[in-house]
Write a structure and sequence with these properties.
Elements lengths: L12 E6 L3 H11 L19 E4 L19 E4 L1 H9 L3 H5 L4 E3 L1 E6 L5 E5 L9 E5 H13 L4 E4 L4 E6 L4 E5 L4 E9 L6 H5 L4 E17 L6 E7 L2 E7 L4 E9 H9 L2 H11 L7 E17 L3 E2 L2 E3 L5 E2 L7 H21 L7 H28 L5 H16 L1 H11 L12
Parallel strand pairs: 1-2, 1-11, 2-8, 5-13, 11-18
Antiparallel strand pairs: 3-7, 4-7, 5-6, 9-10, 10-11, 12-15, 12-16, 13-14, 14-15, 16-19, 17-18
Helix pairs in contact: 1-4, 1-8, 8-9
This protein binds flavin-adenine dinucleotide.
Length: 425
């Protein structure tokens, strides 16, 4: 007796994306919107654009341009490459008209010794190094773009429950019991990706002993254009500027210490913050919100399986100390969209292994390099013997004095080096 897989007749969509977070909605926009390179035609349907469906469990609270809601806790440092991609899919205007803070300078120093490196965009004739933007602003601006595209269906609230991988497509069952089908299923459903787990893709994961406390603060200093990070033996302390006197601080420490800090009332927390953070923070006038997160690094063994691909945190998590998580996720989305466009332009089925392998070859090595680099940075600034501390500080000072290395590092942080997808250039 043979057990042949039942087949789909014609899948309803070319691509179903699970997760309309920052990365998932960027993927949908890059697949379906009219970027200059978007010459994609649906397979065997020569004049039709790709049919894309996104399933999102929960959209963030609305934020209309012109309104001034309280700052969200989750913010991201968007690189120049990310800005470029968001421009190309038409989402940048929706970000700028809501809220985004440009930064031009970046400083990193060793709190134990005198090592320090200061980066300034003027040194490489750039206008800025990046923007700090609330995650929900990025997501909502991308959702605005999707709502204008007739070939994109946004299904929300909707949660993927399970799926079946068939020969010519994937059949997805939602929590509601409804089913949808596509040639390709993409997991953009974050670090605990159900798509990854159900596709049987293993993930190597390491939890760092550190946790991160994130808080929105109002400082006495006026609008800032610098983001900084000081390394102390207990972990890093970082500041990201928001609009006006607002800023976001990230405080890395042991789990126990973060829990203790989180439980303090506002006055006691404010006092602890002023005592521990460097004077660059300036006097803090108010704390608006606080939250804590465990920190992990993780990498899926594969980004692709039969008619399945993973992007963003579903595929990898990095230590947030260089603020690269969403930037590399957006690059995954743009690279996968480009690979799919190129395949369908040649009349190929975008869900086949040969097409998906190209995406994995393109992104896997670069992401592994980022995970390793951030892990090394974390390791270098752990409590170390005196000699290592001296070497570490000397390296920071050396970088500060060697313009070519410094400029190269700056370009790397801006995301403008390496093998970039077309819409990131
Ligand atoms: C403390 C901290 C600070 C950070 N700071 C930065 C920074 O400055 N810069 C930076 O680049 N990165 C930063 N990161 C990392 C960044 O937040 C993540 O890389 C980014 O959120 C990943 O985006 P994503 O779209 O892949 O996943 P997520 O943001 O997790 O989105 C996943 C989406 O999928 C949806 N979903 C999940 N399961 C289902 C399902 N079954 N069905 C339907 N929908 C589903 C969810 O509702 C969600 O909208 C930070 C992380 C931490 C912990």
């Amino acid at each position: 007796m043979t057990h042949e897989k039942p087949e789909l007749n014609v899948p309803e969509y070319d691509v179903i994306v699970v997760g309309g977070g920052m990365v998932g909605s960027m993927l949908c926009a890059a697949l379906a919107s009219d970027t200059d390179n978007n010459h994609s035609l649906g397979p065997n349907r020569q004049d039709e654009p790709l049919r894309v469906c996104v399933l999102e469990h929960q959209l963030p609270a609305a934020f209309e341009p012109g309104s001034e809601p309280a700052y969200d806790l989750r913010v991201s440092a968007l690189s120049i490459a990310s800005e470029q991609m968001l421009k190309r899919v038409g989402a940048w205007e929706g970000i700028k008209t809501r809220r985004a803070c440009e930064y031009k300078r970046l400083s990193v120093w060793d709190g134990e010794r005198d090592g320090r490196t200061d980066f300034n965009c003027a040194d490489i004739n750039a206008d800025h190094l990046g923007h700090i933007v609330e995650n929900r602003v990025i997501q909502l601006a991308l959702m605005d773009v999707l709502s204008e595209l007739t070939n994109v269906t946004v299904v929300t609230p909707a949660r993927l429950s399970r799926f079946r991988q068939l020969n010519h497509g994937v059949e997805v069952v939602l929590d509601s019991g409804n089913t949808v089908s596509a040639r390709l299923l993409v997991g953009a459903d974050g670090a605990n990706s159900v798509v990854r787990q159900q596709a049987g893709i293993a993930m190597e994961k390491k939890l760092y002993p550190q946790h991160a406390l994130v808080a929105n603060v109002q400082t006495a200093l006026s609008q800032q254009d610098i983001t900084w990070q000081r390394f102390v033996p207990t972990g890093a302390q970082a500041f990201l500027p928001l609009c006006g006197q607002q800023g976001s601080i990230v405080w890395y420490h042991s789990k126990e210490e973060i829990e203790q800090l989180k439980s303090l009332d506002e006055d006691a927390f404010l006092q602890a913050l002023q005592q521990s953070f460097p004077e660059e923070l300036g006097p803090v006038e108010a704390i608006h919100a606080r939250g804590a997160f465990p920190i992990a690094k993780a990498h899926a063994k594969d980004y692709v399986a039969n008619r399945v691909a993973l992007v963003g945190d579903a595929a990898h998590t990095v230590h947030p100390l260089a603020g690269q998580g969403v930037n590399i996720g957006l690059l995954d989305a743009a690279a996968l969209a480009q690979v799919i466009h190129e395949a369908v332009a040649k009349g190929r089925d975008p869900g086949t292994h040969a097409v998906l392998r190209r995406y994995q070859r393109w992104r896997y090595g670069d992401n592994q390099l980022m995970i390793t680099a951030l892990d090394s940075l974390y390791e270098a600034f752990k409590p170390r013997p005196m000699l290592v501390q001296q070497l570490r500080s000397a390296s920071l000072n050396l970088v500060d004095q060697m313009a070519p290395i410094k400029h190269q590092l700056m370009r790397h942080a801006m995301g403008v080096s390496g093998d970039l997808p077309d819409i990131a250039r």
